Amino acid sequence: MELPKDPMMLFSFINTKLRDFYPSLDALCKDMNVKKEDIINPLKSAGFEYNRELNKFW
To answer: Which branch of life, at top level (predicted)?
Structure first.
């Protein structure tokens, strides 16, 4: 699946998916067939980090 390139769009897209469909980032990556670093790295460069307990980036 093609992920949004814009960090803010990616942030919104991933958090919505995590909230509505997936219990974890690992589950999302496995189901969507994407590498975790393809999500984490661009969001980290925009100042966002994944919180496992809350299951969201912030």
So the answer is: Bacteria
